[in-house]
Design goal:
Blueprint (H helix, E strand, L loop, with lengths): L3 H21 L7 H23 L13 H20 L5 H32 L11 H10 L15 H18 L5 H18 L5 H16 L3 H8 L2 H18 L3 H20 L6 H11 L1 H19 L6 H28 L1 H11 L1
Length: 360
């Protein structure tokens, strides 16, 4: 029979092993660099929407921000394989259900927000002409083709939620076959790329198909161990040279789909490199990481904030002062809205439950 000292030593050893296993488990930790990447994309999205609202479609440099929306979808796909598959076993039916329900929630949020928008926009007096959301042609555009104007679209808002919801629901459905064949997502990605190529040969395109395909490429990227990704992106000079070549290419040829894939991949890697560099304790970096944790809420709140700012400042001439005030206010209020929600969740359990019910 072991002595009391030996028993205590064994218990200490077991506890140490448990603590070590917990610390190294991907289930126990968020990837702060990934949160930083999402937060930085939300801030760039604020810039994009501010230009849209306060400068307008005549701005001639929109192609340099074309990576933005697909980057969100790429990261969503990355999280499917890198995050969700670390929390659930592929054979666990809860994984497919979790992804499908999450996607369905986003679709419901999109519909509710746009229905609310049809009532609020006229009241705000922004001058936006609302389209009939129940028109069959508009419904086809919104939910099937995705052929919305790249800039200045008036039919709907929050359009990014539609392809993200499709990607999540599609990924949830694919998990059923992924249990049996581990290259399911690879095969599907090849089929999607082939479909885009076939459409291109007949002179057609499908924006939703393109961005969902980029999301599927994100799923494939998520199968790569995070340590290998960290090692790969730690080549700043290589990334800078590649991004310079990409910038020159889109300046000459605009942003066809192959260059869009390149732009999304490079942009996400550059931002991620910044996220894994330096300390996480800085105020600015901490705010960006927090914004990444609330990326969906931050995306929704920024559009609401910009629409209110646009309505409130329409009575003034669009001079330098108005542009400066709206620019600073858009960023400050978006960050403040996330701070308020984060603190409210920590202090009020009912707010936390409501947030999880809607956004989690």
């Amino acid at each position: 029979m072991p002595s009391q000292t030996e028993s205590q030593a064994n218990r200490t050893s077991i506890q140490g092993i448990a603590i070590q296993a917990t610390a190294s488990s991907p289930k126990a930790q968020r990837i702060s660099a990934l949160d930083f990447t999402k937060g930085a994309l939300v801030l760039i999205m604020v810039l994009y929407h501010w230009i849209n609202y306060f400068i307008g479609p005549q701005w001639q440099y929109y192609q340099y921000l074309r990576f933005l929306t697909p980057s969100f979808i790429f990261i969503t796909g990355f999280m499917v394989s890198n995050v969700y598959l670390s929390k659930y076993d592929a054979a666990d039916p809860r994984l497919a259900k979790r992804l499908f329900v999450r996607g369905l929630k986003l679709l419901v949020i999109f519909i509710v927000l746009n229905v609310a928008r049809t009532f609020l926009i006229p009241a705000l007096g922004t001058g936006v002409v609302m389209g009939n959301l129940l028109d069959p042609g508009n419904l086809f555009t919104i939910f099937v083709s995705g052929n919305l104007p790249v800039v200045g679209g008036k039919l709907i808002a929050f359009s990014i939620l539609v392809p993200i919801s499709y990607l999540l629901m599609f990924s949830g459905a694919l998990m059923l076959s992924y249990r049996l064949y581990k290259y399911t997502f690879h095969v599907v990605c090849v089929v999607l790329l082939s479909s885009i190529l076939a459409l291109g040969l007949i002179g057609d395109l499908s924006p939703y198909l393109e961005v969902v395909t980029i999301g599927m490429l994100g799923v494939l990227a998520g199968f790569i161990p995070i340590a290998k990704i960290n090692d790969f992106v730690r080549h700043p000079y290589m990334l800078a040279f590649a991004y310079l070549c990409y910038t020159i290419a889109i300046t000459i040829w605009n942003v066809p789909f192959p260059l869009l894939i390149v732009g999304v991949t490079l942009s996400v890697m550059v931002i991620y490199l910044i996220g894994i560099s330096g300390s996480e304790s800085g105020i600015i970096k901490g705010e960006v990481i927090l914004l990444g944790k609330y990326s969906l809420f931050g995306y929704i709140s920024q559009i609401a904030i910009l629409q209110i700012l646009s309505a409130g400042l329409r009575r003034f001439d669009s001079g330098v002062a108005v542009l400066a005030i709206s620019f600073v206010a858009a960023f400050a209020l978006t960050i403040a809205s996330v701070e308020i929600v984060d603190r409210a969740r920590a202090r009020t359990p009912s707010v936390d439950r409501l947030y999880k019910a809607v956004f989690a």
